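Issue: ligand-bound run for guanosine-5'-triphosphate - logging full I/O for the record.

Environment: standard queue, default settings, no custom constraints.

Inputs:
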Amino acid sequence: MMVRILFNLRCMRRIYDKNVSKSLLKRLYSAKFVGPDVEKIRNFSIVAHVDHGKSTLADRLLELTGAIKPGSETSQVLDNLPVERERGITVKAVTASLSYVYNDETYLLNLIDTPGHVDFSNEVVRSVTACQGVVLLVDANEGVQAQTVAVHSLAKKNNLIIIPTLNKVDLPRADPEKVKGQLQSLFGIDPDNVLQISAKKGWGVQNLLEEIIKRIPPPIVKLDEPFRAHIIDTWHDKYRGVMCLAYIHSGVLKIGDSVKWRSDSKQHLVKYLSLLKPQEENIEKAIAGQVVMVGLGPKGGGKVGDQLLDSKIEESNTAATESGIRHMVYAGIFPSDQSQHTQLSDSIRKLALNDSAVSVSVDSSPALGQGWRVGFLGLLHLDVFTQRLLQEYKAEAILTAPSVPYKVKLRGSKLIRQHRSDEIIITNPLQLPEPQNIVEYYEPLVIGTIITPVEYIGAVTTLCVDRRGTPLPSSSIDEHMTLMQFVLPLSEVVIDFHDTLKSLTSGFASFDYHEHGFHPSSLVRMDILINGVLVDELSTIVHTSRLEFQARRLTTKLKEMIPRQMVQEVEITRTLQGHNLKK
Ligand SMILES: Nc1nc2c(ncn2[C@@H]2O[C@H](COP(=O)(O)OP(=O)(O)OP(=O)(O)O)[C@@H](O)[C@H]2O)c(=O)[nH]1
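Outputs:
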């Protein structure tokens, strides 16, 4: 019961009104495509720091190409999940196939609008695999921010053409020349190549569209080879089963073609084939270089990362769908009532299809019953996942306290045999072996990039050192802004680091991080006993230097939250040294 009071993070949000997206789609009208010609295809993505205007630019591009009517009342048309509209953020990359006539030729432009928040960066990573270029959007007022650095290096790593574009030039405080200087000093971008637009007012957007056609090359594909595509997104359709967004690498795909998954050799027929403009437009045939929606019917399946092949290709690889995603945070998800277990299980399965970044494994708890241990890319990802469960599937869930994964090196041949390895990853504090069976503890570190005005360098350094961070060399972006880097423990970053950084720097600093592997650390499991009984769900793994602070913070909270008459004593045990703290 007490556990529920503390950790029942049910999202009490407004119920999803399905009519939102339907009425929206009604307002869209379609332009006629001339048959695809690879030379006239451009696949590109809009990448930027959070809130620099990606979705607003996507709206203007949709208007210019006739996919939506100009002056449409609904803004951020591609952000059509209720959670995206409520929070004003993009969490899913969305594709729109647009047609545009330039120099009397009709071009097919596949636009992918991507999220900006670091927790959804996997969507960006996946999107760029279907692109030959990106529009790197930078707010001309805020200038280069931490995610600008991250998406620029991602585009470079994938050898994509980058179209640097300054947005929000209509703002009185916009300083395009200063931001061009930042792009030059950080990335070596020639200021003459930088475009200037106002996505909100539509200024310069047509020029940008034509620059996309001129600067980004058509995809290099093999039309005469057998059909092969890779899956960049999937979602569940109530009537048609799994629908997949596929980027075609070679060959041609037609309705009725026989295909198979690379991960299993079973044959299927292509039942649905559409362009997303962004509403579905059925097509009979798609060619290499296109991004299309494919459905194989209710039993057809489909997973992000897998490949769809012509059934005559003799190739299979059961590991084809391994994502390589490293989960940053794990939490237990349990039904609020065990009678809801089947429904919640079904909802999690369907949502995990659309949110391929989560990992789901079965879990159980003495207090909460049967449930799942779910891995997320960060706390915002966890929050959005539970909100989507409630809004899109009406599934209420109880969440346990989130924890980062740890690693331990085991002692004892029996244990090593049992785990088939001398090292195990701990995603649940309860899995931690007894201290005498552990040779070494490891915790995950990240390299954090912070871009801050120079006057906050001191405050940022103090925050990072307090969070056990080690500074790396910093570099000046211009006379006002500095790029700082720190090696930080992931556990110190995921909970409230971003909010604290924002409040210390009056909202001016931005933060991004990438993983830096597991490193040896001094860790201990902190157990909580209430009325002498160990409450499994309250156990956490903490760094020994933070044990007392964390213990006092948690017991103070428990003291406030648990009705006094129900508790005689709250006790904290430290398994390693057997210390007790009583409140
Ligand atoms: N003044 C001005 N405001 C803009 C412009 N472009 C976007 N905005 C505003 O900036 C805010 C963020 O715009 P979005 O398009 O949601 O930004 P985003 O990059 O898609 O955001 P995420 O998907 O959450 O990363 C909104 O309030 C927009 O109205 C512009 O050219 N000028």
